[in-house]
Amino acid sequence: MAQQQGDAEEKPTMRLFWSSRSPFVRKVMVTAHELGLTSQIATQRVAVGIVRLDDDLMAANPLNKIPTLVTREGEALFDSRVICAYLDSIADEPRLFPLDKNRWQSLRMQALADGMMELLTLRLFENIRPEGKQWDAVHGAARTKIAAVCDHADARIAQEDGPIHIGHIALACALAHCDFRFGADEWRTGRPGLTAWYETIRFRPSMVATAYEDVY
Ligand SMILES: N[C@@H](CCC(=O)N[C@@H](CS)C(=O)NCC(=O)O)C(=O)O
Questions:
Q1: Is 43 in contact with 30 (CB distance < 8 Å)?
Q2: Which residues does the UniProt record annotate as the domain GST N-terminal (predicted)?
């Protein structure tokens, strides 16, 4: 069932296959909030997973993945990087994909954060494998990589002095997802710079409006 979020005065012209649990979806929703586009997007809740397929979604995206955005023209766009770049391109003031000196750092930060989301998703999948088919080494390696991502970000975040960009949004959504699913990892420990930065970004209206919820 489609549900509308944001300013109800404007009729939505786009449709987003959506879940309140996906970090990739949240990245798209935070982007839409930052660009003032939420009233144009109707969200359609889907519950999917690597072994849980959805016919409606697959008709739009053969990969069965969310987020998938159906544009005003009826074209399906995926994945989250493509959708965020598209939303930036149709906004009155495109600004989340800098073209100046911050361009490559912002895209690298997005890639790093997306990779962290993939690792968190992999760990969730490992958790639901049938008993006897789980592989602890996957958790261990994923945890090590996630810690390295956080160290990388912690070492660089203080040098970020410009306006918010797509890398910041992706990183905030990845860290929030770590809290949501793997709070015991305590990513803040030993990373004061990243912690202080996150304590600011997590209170932006776009982040507050898109909090994760563990519901289908
Ligand atoms: N690279 C994709 C990743 C999207 C993704 O993995 N989404 C998960 C939910 S968090 C999904 O839809 N999984 C369903 C499946 O793998 O079939 C993106 O950036 O959008």
A1: no
A2: 12-95
pLDDT value for 176: 98
Check pocket membership of 40 for ligand 1, CB cut-off 6 A: no
What number does the ligand 1 atom closest to the CA of 64 have? 17
Q: Is the CB of 18 under 6 A from ligand 1?
A: no
Q: Which residue's alpha carbon is at the smallest distance from atom 6 of ligand 1?
A: 65
- Of the residues 16, 30, 65, which should be mutated to test ligand 1's pocket, given the most ligand atoms within 8 Å of the CB? 65
Cα of 58 from ligand 1 centre, angstroms: 12
Q: Is the peptide bond before 79 cis (omega within 30 degrees of 0)?
A: yes
**Topology at the third CATH level for domain 103-204:** Glutathione S-transferase Yfyf (Class Pi); Chain A, domain 2 (1.20.1050)
Sheet arrangement for strand 76-77: 2-4, 41-45, 14-18, 68-70, 76-77
Ligand 1 close to Cβ of residue 121 (< 6 A) = yes
Cα separation values, 176 from 59, 144, 184, Å: 31, 18, 13
104-152: pLDDT as tens digits: 999 999 999 999 999 999 999 999 898 888 888 999 999 999 999 999 9
Question: Which CATH architecture is the domain 2-95 placed in?
Answer: 3-Layer(aba) Sandwich (3.40)
The answer to whether residues 88 and 30 touch, using CB atoms and an 8 Å cutoff, is no
Q: Classify the C-alpha dihedral 14-17-21-22 as positive or negative.
A: negative
Q: Find all residues with CB under 8 Å of 48, minimum gap 6, and list them.
A: 19, 54, 57, 64, 65, 66
